[in-house]
């Protein structure tokens, strides 16, 4: 427990600018108020784990929270729908915003960790809910050409894979994550494998700018949480799907698994991708009867170090020095774009 007096005064301070739902977890909307909480944690020598999110929490987010609760004395989760990572034609305005429910879900989550005498129950210690003005003091225009102020670009890693369809996406992510890291100064940070390119870009960013809080090796990649019945990767954007869309959505992971099998059978990359594309085509033609438009955006194999696509090669003998391969893809279900991936190798060896 952090100084109760400080906690309650911070709670009051943090609620002066925005009307927030009531919550058993302290909520902070300003960097200044949050920094006082962080300072108190540092004085108490408590380790701080950080889970950045855009809200609309689901069990994928909660798997990151549980890992952070298990690893750290204190856990902070942020909810911020970051305008800079949405292109002007994307879904910033309709992105699901479910704060009251998010806070309920978070309050209910706990992890029991062994202690010298008994066990300790840990719950989330703070939620950081900054406003757009707080995160972008120079303002933020979704049109990159009109932007003013400071932005972070991770060059050479942001144009492949997701960057082909979303060219400014990682600039927006790298910028906001740098700001969040500066505000929170976590010892450990947790990101989901579902957004694998994001994880690797953030690790690279931390290495390149010599970040200490968190240090690159304290940026952890947590495996993708899936719907147990269909294997669909959990995602906030699944909320956009109709019942028919929901039935079709697991095809992306099925397609990736087909490509993975073809790869381990020794077929060339292009054949693996064709086989995966066939799975999506079959799903699309079945769904077309119900008027739902389904389209593959891409399936690709990339080197996890350089993020460059593989040439049209076959699976080589695994070499203990070679970095894992990324097999990833995206598909459109109507206006909803879903992503997924398989890491061919161990998550722990991703740099
Ligand atoms: N199924 C999942 N398993 C593990 N981590 C996940 C999963 N889905 C999202 N995350 C992670 O949660 C963090 C916050 O993600 P975010 O709030 O954007 O949710 P999301 O479900 O990825 O949303 P979107 O539908 O917009 O992609 C990110 O690190 C993301 O990779
Ligand atoms: C990391 C992140 C919170 C930055 O806005 C976002 O891209 C996400 O939720 O994956
Ligand atoms: N989880 C990635 C956030 C986005 O697609 O904007």
Automatic annotation (TrEMBL):
Its EC number is 6.3.2.1. Gene3D superfamilies: HUPs, Pantoate-beta-alanine ligase, C-terminal domain. One of its GO terms (molecular function) is ATP binding. One of its GO terms (biological process) is pantothenate biosynthetic process. It catalyses: (R)-pantoate + beta-alanine + ATP = (R)-pantothenate + AMP + diphosphate + H(+). Pathway: Cofactor biosynthesis; (R)-pantothenate biosynthesis; (R)-pantothenate from (R)-pantoate and beta-alanine: step 1/1. The keyword ATP-binding applies. Keywords: ATP-binding, Ligase, Nucleotide-binding, Pantothenate biosynthesis. InterPro entries: Pantoate_ligase (IPR003721), Pantoate_ligase_C (IPR042176), Rossmann-like_a/b/a_fold (IPR014729). The keyword Ribosomal protein does not apply. It holds the Pfam family Pantoate_ligase. HAMAP family: PanC. Belongs to the pantothenate synthetase family. This is Pantoate--beta-alanine ligase.
């Amino acid at each position: 427990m952090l100084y109760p007096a400080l906690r309650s005064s911070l709670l009051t301070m943090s609620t002066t600018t925005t009307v927030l739902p009531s919550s058993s977890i302290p909520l902070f909307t300003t960097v200044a108020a949050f920094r006082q909480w962080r300072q108190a944690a540092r004085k108490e020598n408590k380790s701080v784990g950080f889970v950045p999110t855009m809200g609309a929490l689901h069990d994928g987010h909660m798997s990151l929270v549980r890992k952070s609760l298990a690893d750290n004395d204190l856990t902070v989760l942020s909810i911020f729908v970051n305008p800079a990572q949405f292109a002007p034609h994307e879904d910033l305005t309709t992105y699901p915003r479910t704060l009251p429910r998010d806070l309920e879900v978070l309050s209910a989550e706990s992890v029991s960790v062994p202690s010298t005498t008994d066990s300790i129950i840990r719950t989330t210690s703070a939620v950081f809910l900054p406003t757009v003005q707080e995160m972008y003091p120079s303002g933020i225009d979704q049109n990159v050409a009109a932007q003013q102020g400071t932005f972070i670009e991770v060059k050479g890693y942001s144009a492949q894979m997701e960057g082909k369809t979303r060219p400014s996406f990682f600039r927006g992510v790298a910028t906001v994550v740098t700001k969040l890291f500066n505000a929170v100064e976590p010892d450990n940070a947790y990101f989901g494998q579902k957004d694998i390119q994001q994880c690797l870009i953030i690790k690279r960013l931390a290495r390149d700018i010599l970040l200490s809080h968190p240090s690159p090796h304290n940026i952890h990649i947590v495996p993708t949480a899936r719907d147990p019945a269909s294997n669909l990767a959990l995602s906030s954007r699944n909320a956009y799907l109709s019942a028919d869309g929901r039935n079709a959505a697991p095809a992306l992971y099925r397609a990736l698994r087909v490509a993975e099998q073809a790869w381990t059978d020794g077929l060339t990359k292009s054949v693996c991708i064709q086989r995966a594309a066939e799975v999506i085509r079959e799903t699309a033609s079945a769904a077309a009867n119900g008027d739902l438009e389904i389209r593959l955006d891409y399936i690709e194999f990339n080197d996890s170090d350089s993020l460059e696509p593989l040439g049209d090669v076959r699976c080589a003998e695994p070499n203990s020095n070679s970095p894992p391969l990324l097999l990833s893809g995206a598909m459109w279900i109507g206006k909803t774009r879903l992503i997924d991936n398989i890491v061919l190798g161990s998550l722990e060896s991703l740099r």
